[in-house]
Amino acid sequence: xxxxxxxxxxxxxxTRT
Length: 17
Hints:
Order of helices and strands: H
Distance between the termini: 25 Å
Helix content: over 70%
Structural class: mainly alpha
């Protein structure tokens, strides 16, 4: 669950530009 959360945050942060 931690890995999914990290990957999700990365995608969100990158797509939040």
